[in-house]
């Protein structure tokens, strides 16, 4: 028999869902069966004071919905994967010369993974132009990261159609790919079932530490691998053995119950493969921004080691420019400095010569709706600055050389 816990939310005392009783037990340190805000903050390591990259009220709010096991009703202010798909089709109908909706993959549950390719002469092959890829929602609960790529794409299209010189210039010079929802299965699960869901929704059936484990989902940003034997240790650190948690690296693990499960095999997830095909398989892709939440940080390679890459000066220089575009208050650091990860998208873009950043935005996963427009407008500036930097540096021959991994060489169009 589980105890019944309560918490205070939206001005009243409400029950914690029975399915969350185990978590509630861990939160309720004074064992009075009521979860105070301070106990919840202590459990989730939410700082007392708001700081750049930590929104105490927002984090409490989203965690309370999970403890109640109810959908976060703020979802109506954020796009679903179906809304994104529908809007992309409308944009293609409205601006057929400026964009094309492209299915770049299919999720585990059969949802299309859509990209919007934005460029002048979109009905023709534009692979001679410098390409940039901007993604969101590798992680299901990071709802704002869907909004930012959509907002920038729409702004470029509206501006280009109205003849704005800056938008026209970018459309002429760049092939801009926007993938707002890399993980559509996870996004729908986080909207409808568990608002703090992070991973994919693939079925995992395996044996760990001698125990059979059946669970759902892989952390996409621990699942990348470009197929080259010499980079396999970026996915699984040397010495780490599959099927045991005893040697797990702190943020890329073999335990499928964790939020950072790397998958049973490298690049096992169709969503991972879709992103690698797009970003690594197209040799004109020279830059990429992957939007995540949260922390207000611009992260560059590496994630799997504290060792800085040889291109560190270029990476920091571009990061400073996009930080200025964001208002100048983001932290600029290596991904490993933020926290170490194995199997991250960033490192596989980096080893193949794509100038890439992980953008950790806002102070929680599902900010109050009042943050949506300001966040999008702020990161529009970042995206446009990044596109300009990549195009200019590609033309000047200042970017790292691109390599295309063998397994991704077949498709260019
Ligand atoms: Zn993330």
Task: Provide a descriptive summary of the structure in words.
It contains 13 helices and 13 strands. With 413 residues, the chain is α/β, with parallel strands linked by helices. The strands form 3 sheets. Strands 4-5-7-6-10-13-11-12 form an 8-stranded mixed β-sheet, sandwiched between helices. Strands 2-1-3 form a 3-stranded mixed β-sheet. Strands 8-9 form a two-stranded antiparallel sheet. Strand 4 (99-106) and strand 5 (112-118) form a beta hairpin. Bound molecules: zinc ion. Zinc ion is lined by residues 138-139, 142, 292.
How far from one another are the termini?
60 Å
- Output the helix-strand order: EEHEHHHEEEHHEHEEHHEEHEHHEH
Q: What percent strand?
A: 15-25%
Q: What is the β-strand count?
A: 13
Structural class from helices and strands? alpha/beta
Strand order of the largest sheet: 4-5-7-6-10-13-11-12
- Backbone CA Rg: 21 Å
Q: Could you say which overall geometry the principal axes of the C-alpha atoms support?
A: globular
What proportion of the residues is helical, as a percent range? Answer: 25-40%
Bound compounds, please? zinc ion
Q: Which spans have pLDDT < 50 for at least 5 consecutive residues? A: none
Biggest sheet features: 8 strands, mixed
The mean pLDDT is 95
Number of contiguous helices: 13
Task: Describe how the helices and strands are arranged.
Elements: E1 6-9, E2 12-15, H1 21-27, E3 34-35, H2 37-44, H3 56-68, H4 81-94, E4 99-106, E5 112-118, E6 130-135, H5 144-161, H6 165-173, E7 174-179, H7 184-192, E8 203-208, E9 211-216, H8 232-235, H9 270-281, E10 285-292, E11 297-300, H10 312-325, E12 331-334, H11 335-338, H12 345-351, E13 355-360, H13 372-395
Parallel strand pairs: 1-3, 6-7, 6-10, 10-13, 11-12
Antiparallel strand pairs: 1-2, 4-5, 5-7, 8-9, 11-13
Helix pairs in contact: 5-6, 5-13, 10-13
This protein binds zinc ion.
Zinc ion binds at residues 138-139, 142, 292.
